[in-house]
Structure formats: structure tokens, C-alpha cells
Sequence to fold (270 residues):
Amino acid sequence: MDVTTACKRSAIHNLRIDVGGPGAGSASNGIEEGLAMPHALLAASDLVIGESVIVARILGDNRQNRVRTFVVPSSGESVEARGSLGYFLSEGDLVCVISETRLDAEGQRLHRSGDLHIVDYGIVPGKGFRDGTLKHERLGRPDEVRATAPDKSLLRDSLMPRLMLNSLITNLVVNDTNEDCLLGSAEIPGVLMDQVGMTRHTMVTVFNASAGGCTDTYAVPMPPGVVMTTGAMAGFAPLGTQVHVASYVLADRTHAASIVRTDGNEAILS
Fold:
């Protein structure tokens, strides 16, 4: 069995949130959850739509200073905290955004030798994201260069897969709960799971769009119309809570997620 190591893939430092707060992701023309970023910033920092990221709030407290989310496109030049992320971030907050990869034995060897670089995009606080400085960090080498040969970029793409959004079900509303954890965890209508390619026991992230926060658990198929939380999940997302449910996969930049919007328990758009 190949042993893989989780490793930083890229980072953005001192990124300012332009739109945040509860309800920030209610725009009908975009995905209701995630960190919305302009296409120019995605290109500069080597992030792609759907990529999983950790958002660390600078000056946040030591118990809640970072959350996991995914990247979605913004409608203009603004950086927006949507859905549950809007409860964590407010307008004017500075954050660091970190993506990750998994390195196999060959990838680890090349990373240690400095042949696999890490993309690092730094923004001076108070300036716009277009004024950032791009660095390609190479382990074990004193210089941080701003350019790299095309063959090195291709090597990086092949050996440093991205953690990508694989499936997303939005706007579910919990209509049943059970505190007994013997029954399941995050129960979702099986027909919706089929539509996005989730199977029983798929590991998922549940985003609480009503009160903020996200947590990881596994999915269990239910009859049509039943959205249920069980055990510890019943405390995280009680009756009436609106949630978005996501799963991830290691893939390349071309991977496209399967997305279904619901009216609470049935699909309205896929």
C-alpha cells in the first residue's frame, strides 16, 4: 500500500473579506455556500473552482480560528463568505486561505529535493488582491522565485492532486432528529444521494447555514423527503436547520462536482 502524506499545496495571505455576515450567500445566481473569489485571484494563487480550502481568520480566537470550506466563483471582484461561512467571517476580516494535497513516495522525495514547489501568494494588508506577490517556494532552497519552468508546473499538477468538491446538496432542511446514535448520522433522501453520486457511508461535510459551523460525518440514505440528523449531529443541526452537504475527492483541476439544489427535501435544480 502506498503511504501518502498531507501537504500544503498553496496559500493566500492577508486576504480581505469584502462581503460577510449571516445571509451573505443568499444570491440566487451563485452557490449558497463557500468562499467566493474572483477568477483573477484564483489564477494568481493556483486555486480552482471547487477546491477544498482551510480559511484561517487572522486575530481569531484560539478555539475557532479556522474552518474548512471550498472555493466558488464570485460575481465580480469581491471576496465573499457565503452560507455557514458568513457566520464565521465579517466584512473587513483578514484571512489566510490554505489548500492541500496528498504526496505519494515519489512526490515526497521530489518535494524534499525542492523539485515540487508550493504556491504562496502574499498580499500586504490594506492593499487589493491584485497587488499581491507570487512566490514559488522550494523546500531546501534559500531562494523563493516568482516563476517556474513549464515542465515543473506540469510535474506539480501530476504529483500534487487537489482535494476537490465531488458532490454538493444545498438547502436541505432537517425535518426529523433522533438522539440515539445507533441509527445513523446525517440521513439524506437516497434519491438525492443517487443524483450526486453519494453512497451509504460516504464521508461528508455538513454546513449549518442557519447558525454557522461545519462538521464531518457520514451519509445514510433515507426514504424520499426525509432529512434527519442522529446522535451528535442532532445537536449540531436540530429540527428546522438548513444545511448544505458536501463530499470531496482527490482529483485534478478539471474535476466538476455534481450539485443539486433542493427546496428543503426534494431536488429543484441539478
